[in-house]
Every structure is written in C-alpha cells, then in structure tokens.
Write a structure and sequence with these properties.
Distance between the termini: 45 Å
Amino acid sequence: MNQFEGQVVIDVSTLVETGTDDMQNKAHENFSYGVMNEIMLILANKGYITESISMDLKDNGVVNENLVEHHQSVINKANKDIGWVYNKSNIHTTRLD
C-alpha cells in the first residue's frame, strides 16, 4: 500500500470592523479549535488524515461594499447548505429549523 502526502491549500477571508490589533485577533479567534476539528473530521471521513491545521491572516485594508455583500451572500448560502452536509455525512443527524 502506498501513502501520498501533501498539503491542502485553502484561501480564506473574513470581514471584521476595523484593522486594529483587536480585530486581527478576533479574525483569528473566530477560526476556533472547533472549526479546525470539524475540518479534520470531514477530511478523515474521506480517508485523509490531517496532522495539523493553522491559519495566518493578513489585513488587506478597507473593502468596498460589493465585497461585503458577496461575503454575506456566501455566508447565507453556507448556512442553508450546512445541514445537508452534516445529514449526508451522518444519517442520524436531524436538522431542526
């Protein structure tokens, strides 16, 4: 049996109110251990063992309103679709809306 090893590269972004150090900390803290654990579990379910997950965000400055609207649209769609993802991976999960 052969083992393939490499990296999964995911470009992420988030929006916070300002570019202060507190907001930078908030941006990193929102990507909590729980989120990392969920990603690792989803990958493991598909046969991919994850040794570690880390994130390093940089401040790209003030964004325009179109990006804010797009960001919110993506979040809204994800909130609708997340129940399906969990139901698909665990048939015993019930979504209560």
